[in-house]
């Protein structure tokens, strides 16, 4: 593609390039992948500075260097911009023939509920006949993919005739300006609770990152029950709210009834009352459904379509997902909960439907925010009858150090057990389950891997649970076979 086309919309502060009709083969921020006639964009990361690798990119015959460095000079063609991150997204959008202009976009942001809200919204729009796709944690390398993955994916969707894209917008992506070329018809705010504070530093900065989204949206739909709602959506051009408890909200939920098989609730707005059935359990799923229904009402989708879409909502992979264990007498769920708020919500939801012991198996990720570990230990021991502490993507950290941090919050008078090996923890929990128990394995959810000091290893939690149940059935008297 011609350099002039690649730079469409990019603010240029300084350049020594006189002609912009040169052909650029590709664009990369990784100097190791540069080939002749490529553009190298020098991005500063949290643990590295791409400006240090300009020399390597030039040695590989990069055609153009894009930099923020005011001190960069020389005979090599360069372009200086205010933000190489913003330029990276804009240039990849141009390289992919501007999918930003070829579809309409809906973004969902918040600490918890993004994936489920995206999945519910996509299902509802499809039920109304709109061709759409979702992008996020469930089908991408990152919650919001990096520009090369994101804009290539958007190009593919546009080429297939997709009309709407519903995507998760993470605070990292907003801070790193991955969504710079995109404007959104609708932005949805779910909630804000402590998470990623190792990156943002404090809740004010975390909220400010989320708030970046709503200045890019024509209308904002927000959860009025969240205490950060006004802070996060303060830049919104227009707002509609939904709530469980605030009668001044635009959309209100009443008469919620939760069962192991789903939720019934009334969804109210001016002059309208919807009685809806959702085949997913948990009050937090009602919040996610309210966001999707609020969007549908704003878009003018028929009441009958909304009712039908809610009643046929498929389970969201790894989100309070029930593992089918026939004739066991106990229930097993897996969930992605990996924050204090998410753990509170999943345990509260399962307590509401449990008739026996509530057993929670969880760990915390390594090389991530340590401040949430003790609170998660406290929450688990307060809300569950039994807690089993194990590993969850320890990465380069010693799993025992992570577990020690979790144990600081555990109520030592409550039943708890430490089994660092997650596979062993799963086998023990399944083998020792009793009729009436409700068991939840938290943290992995849809993930099919475990990241430890040796890298990413295959780890299908659902299959391991099913295999452990087969082992149990095969044992005489259902006695526990030591791991």
Task: Explain what you see.
The chain has helices at 3-6, 54-59, 84-95, 114-127, 147-159, 171-175, 197-200, 203-211, 229-232, 283-298, 303-311, 340-353, 373-383, 399-407, 422-431, 461-474, and strands at residues 14-15, 27-28, 39-41, 64-67, 78-80, 104-109, 132-135, 164-168, 184-189, 217-223, 239-243, 251-259, 262-269, 272-278, 321-323, 331-335, 358-362, 386-389, 416-418, 438-442, 449-452, 455-458. It is built from 16 helices and 22 strands. The protein has 483 residues and is of the alpha/beta class. The N and C termini lie far apart (58 Å). Helix content is 32%, strand content 22%.
- Give the overall average pLDDT: 94
Q: What is the second-level CATH architecture of the largest domain?
A: 3-Layer(aba) Sandwich
What's the helical proportion of residues?
Answer: 25-40%
Number of domains: 3
Structural classification: alpha/beta
Q: Superfamily at the CATH H level of the largest domain? A: Mur-like, catalytic domain
Here the CATH topology of the largest domain equals UDP-N-acetylmuramoyl-L-alanine:D-glutamate ligase
- Record the strand order, biggest sheet: 7-8-6-9-10-11-12-13-14
Secondary-structure map:
Blueprint: H1 3-6, E1 14-15, E2 27-28, E3 39-41, H2 54-59, E4 64-67, E5 78-80, H3 84-95, E6 104-109, H4 114-127, E7 132-135, H5 147-159, E8 164-168, H6 171-175, E9 184-189, H7 197-200, H8 203-211, E10 217-223, H9 229-232, E11 239-243, E12 251-259, E13 262-269, E14 272-278, H10 283-298, H11 303-311, E15 321-323, E16 331-335, H12 340-353, E17 358-362, H13 373-383, E18 386-389, H14 399-407, E19 416-418, H15 422-431, E20 438-442, E21 449-452, E22 455-458, H16 461-474
Parallel strand pairs: 2-3, 3-4, 4-5, 6-8, 6-9, 7-8, 9-10, 10-11, 11-12, 16-20, 17-18, 17-20, 18-19
Antiparallel strand pairs: 1-5, 12-13, 13-14, 15-16, 21-22
